[in-house]
Amino acid sequence: MKLGLQLGYWSAQPPSGVPELLRAAEESGFDSAFTAESWGSDTYTPLAWWGASTTTLRLGTAVSQLSARPPTTLAMAALTLDHLSGGRHIIGLGVSGPQVVEGWYGQSFARPLARTREYVRIVRDVLARDGAVHSDGPHYRLPLTAADGGTGLGKALKPITHPLRADIPVWLGAEGPKNVAQTAEIADGWLAIFYTPRLAGMYDEWLDEGFARDGARRTRDDFEIAATVQCVITDDVPAAIDRYRPSTALYVGGMGAQEKNFHADLYRRMGYGEAVDDIGRLFRAGRREEAVAAVPDEMVRETMLAGTADDVRDQIRQWETAGVTTLMVTARDVDTVRQLGDLV
Question: Contact 297/237 with Cβ under 8 angstroms?
């Protein structure tokens, strides 16, 4: 089991104390650190800024949104950071959801699986630098032709900069069965959110479908499963649950539309359908405090690590047995980071 530090995306202001957290993580044997983005702070700027003070941590995005950058732009950022970090970058990608893709980026959310497959292929073509990068689309046409609305003057190019590594690992954020299966087929790792060891058998079925496909990139033995998890080492588990209850309500009730919310769908698969309906209804009605109160304790508890140090050590073993290779923890204080390093 490896440990990663999930720094996430920013709220109204940049978080404080990140350099101290990274220093503690590196000294405590953590393997990696990650940044995220929604519709505020981006992934690559803080990852490069903070990552410059590290020497051993792998530096990943979890996740960079596909619609935020053309695939060649993402590949440029990735090869640049990989050089600057001495080969420590992990590319983490995700499709986000229709509210963000169409509301923030002004792009169509249609065919997310096909877009992901095409995007990853182009990124890998750039990093391979075997020749000029071409793509027949339909989502990312390179070069853009006159028939597609261009001037007809576009030229297929290959990167000027020689990538340090042609095989920078690509991990994909995925929640549904089709997306997880495709992730096992085309990626080097799975970024799992709201993971629960209780459903490991279901996840294994989805993953095995992808591993069995012709041309699958990895096998179970060399594929990474990185699960984001809140971690609180405490004698007061109910207080820890209350601390994260608002976040669960937000993702289930507010991070997606009523018609399409991947997080809500995931919790339905976990057996919380009735609670999901109540939370969503209250959240959309502006009754947020009631929405938070409607989140059952166990709905929060089973996707986090919480308890005494011995309790958390036992829980880590359960997640490892379930197949998780990296715990991407959202610990926000140096003491917890150091304690986790000792436990693992």
Answer: no
Q: Do 146 and 257 share a structural domain?
A: no
Give the whole-angstrom CA distance, residue 25 versus residue 325. 17
Interval 29-88: pLDDT, tens: 999 999 999 999 999 999 999 999 999 999 999 999 999 999 999 999 999 999 999 999
CA–CA separation, 163 and 80 (whole Å)? 8
Look up tokens 């588990």; give the residue. 237
SS3 readout for 20-88: HHHHHHHHCCCCEEEECCCCCCCCHHHHHHHHCCCCCCEEEECCEEHHHCCHHHHHHHHHHHHHHCCCC
Whole-model pTM: value is: 0.95
Same domain, 51 and 159: yes
Are 59 and 127 in the same domain?
yes
* 340 vs 316: CA distance, rounded Å: 10
Please check whether residues 172 and 294 belong to one and the same domain. no
Separation CA 206–CA 202 (nearest Å): 7
Which residues sit opposite 189 in a β-bridge?
171, 224
Range of the domain at 239: 235-305
Q: Do residues 200 and 260 both lie within one domain?
A: no
The answer to whether residues 203 and 227 belong to one domain is: yes
pLDDT, mean of residues 285-292: 94
Q: Residue 1: helix, strand or coil by DSSP? A: coil
Number of domains in the chain: 2
Q: Are residues 95 and 172 in the same domain?
A: yes
Residue with token string 């507010």: 254
Beta bridge partners of 283: none
**8 A C-beta contact, residue 30 and residue 57:** yes
Q: Where are the beta strands (DSSP E) in the chain?
A: 2-6, 32-35, 58-61, 64-65, 89-94, 135-136, 141-142, 170-173, 189-192, 224-233, 304-307, 326-329
147-177 residue pLDDT tens? 999 999 999 999 999 999 999 999 999 999 9
Q: Is a pLDDT exceeding 90 seen at residue 207?
A: yes
Q: Are residues 133 and 271 in the same domain?
A: no
